[in-house]
Protein 1
Amino acid sequence: MAIPKPIYEQTIKRFFEPILPFLDDPTVTEIMINGPDQIFVERFGTISTTDARFSSREALESALRNLAQYVGRHVGPERPILEARMPDGSRVEAVFPPAAGDGPTVAIRRFSKDPMTLDTLLGFGAFTPDLVQVIDGLVAAKQNIVIAGGTASGKTSLLNAVSSLIPEAERVVVIEDARELQLQLPHVVQLEAQPPDANGRGATTIRDLFRATLRMRPDRIVVGEIRGGEALDMVQAMTSGHGGCLATLHATHALDSVNRIETLALMSDVGLPLYALRSQVASAIDYLLLCSRLADGSRCVTSLTEVVGYHPTDGYEFKHLFRRAYTGRDESGAIQSELRATGEVPACIDMLEAIGHAMPESVERAREARAAKETQS
């Protein structure tokens, strides 16, 4: 007989009592547990230690095993990694002994109950109204955009915000390894990969879901994070008429991003010549929206970069439309920077103008200044 969900939730709260104050604190974005005696939290991009403790290693393991039971996962020496969600939606990644020699190591990623909006991120200074205007046009023109950045750089929040620019009349299919995205659109289908059972059976991978999605009449496909061989399925979908895709990726720079996509694509069971794969990647990915967590803990967009193409001699060619310039720190230690238009314009500018999306004045001014400088030289 299945245990009712409310009882399970109360049980989990009892087991995780040492960290309940942090689970209830909206300013906490990450809880990091390094064994029973070390618990850290992240607030506003800064990590600090806490006085919270679990009574013993066994108490921490019991809490995690209870959570594993709640989400239908099996953990043990032969399967020491747990991926799960708390009842409130927080994402849990835990590693058990013997893989974690000092005791269970846990990272709990918290998500705001109210998803980040473009206005919220604009208020934080993560990007500018001019960049939003350009991205709005790119989304309307169904350009494929990959949001890339390092760990905890704000990729998911940025994807949530950018997805709000998708027209409400469109059908959007979301594919995730663990459900995190909160798209505020009327027609959203959310699919989530499933791990195998205790006997290694019944797994549903991102690749399985991606292939099924292509037969579900999607207007847009949103991939929570590109992590494996599904990169090839995504690239091939993008180059075969499925425009307007959005995805996130762990990478720091534009070149790192396309290199990582091709590396992940090579993890698939389809053998492609490297040149053919690189040409497909360059053709599939239209724009890279790069974000970063700076040294002062702030998160921001660092560039909007167009993937122009690939040449076997010169490699990938990029065109930066916006880049962040850094000017130092203020008296409080906060990093001072500004996201600036470079003077480059999207290759699809004619299409943008045709559908009523003009470039911001800052882009036009930078374009004129760039042209004047090139004429003088």
Protein 2
Amino acid sequence: MSATAARAAALEAAICGCRKCPRLVAWREQVALEKRAAFRDQEYWGRPIPGFGDLAARVVILGLAPAAHGANRTGRIFTGDRSGDFLFAGLHRVGIANQATSVSAGDGLVLSDCFITAAVRCAPPANRPLPVERDHCASWLDEEFSLLEHARVVVCLGGFAWEAGCRLRARRGDPVPRPRPRFGHGAELPGRWPLLGCFHPSQQNTFTGRLTPGMLDEVLLRAREMAGHPGPAGS
């Protein structure tokens, strides 16, 4: 095992054992105990979620938090819910993922030149983390980013992730201009670690047509271009 892989494994273990936020701990464990009827026979993960993907990635995708019956159930970010279905289908179309579906942590999914993580690591009630919970998780994002030595662009899924990306940059010595640029689909914030905005692939956006597959593909292809690889993976 390489030194980077060893550091990543240690960080993953630390994230999965985190109990910093009492409200989030109680909620994630309650959901894992009560379950959704469709998943009553499954064992829920019920713990924090580490990032997932290629440690040599140039493209980093930053989400909000695990879904209560998605990643909180499967143990892998964006896995097992409709948002993940939409996201991974897009990653597959642009050549970043080896398959278009993500149903479980052991389903064979592999990402190329891409790492996916979240601003908050536990499923929050009503999908709304508190500021203190966001701040507690900031150190995990910092430590993950320190492993991603080749990161060139951060795709922020939604306004919460955009704000988290701005804070991440500032902590790493890449200050954000004032006034802070507003989030928008396709918005770009240049810098040492550029940010690229994308509407979150939630059902609220994808079912209403606010975010279409074509719109997602355009952002993902733009991210690859910003990262220095304009063509499909493997070209």
Protein 3
Amino acid sequence: MLLAHELIGHADDPAIILIHGITDSRHMWHPLLHDLAQHHLVLAVDLRGHGDSDNDSPYDPITYATDVVETAAALGVTNPLVIGHSLGGVVASAYAAIAPTVGVINVDQPLRLSAFKAGLAPLEEMLKGSRREFEQAIEMVFAAMDGPLPAEEKARLEHNRHADQDVVLGTWASVFDSTEEELDETVAALAGGIKVPYLSLHGIDPGPDYAAWLQHLVPTATVELWPDLGHYVQLVEPKRFLERVAAFEAQVHS
């Protein structure tokens, strides 16, 4: 699927692909877009079922990633640094497993989906319930993760956010329907395809043993915690985030 997108910057510069999280769109990245485009060709996409892209199941990580790969290829974007936030972090990881990339930055999305399943379980009934119950559950999910997000940014995200129940449930179907052991096996299979430098950057602590767990699966991974910044670290401290992207790129190309 060719995704709705924005492509800015210079074709001769290194490429970056930006992938948003669940219920968000490419607009989430707007505060960073033009800064990144000063020295990069930047492609920001709307995943299927999000933003201005078409709704068409399935909504699994490999399908999402394949759409991004196909869109990048159609636009001549090659060998990018792929940056994904939340769900986009899983999609960026899948991208690296199936297509050439110089590296991955995964923003606040632990890949230990078995732990995510346990955390999501108390909301499963509401998410699968009436439209109002679903909306209340989504509000609870995001309210718990905002952290010190500035009020204007919170309002901007809420304005652009669209929670389609079918898309959300389709995205999380494997989490609901698989056992924790099956989820661990799925993640291990995906992670085994990641051979490039991988930065896992978190504003919410993924747990004391997460770094060792991830590095066992992805030996190229670095896990970094920016304490108490919440889910949107890139919007809470945008200058610091841009500097970290530049430092990661320097490491990748050294």
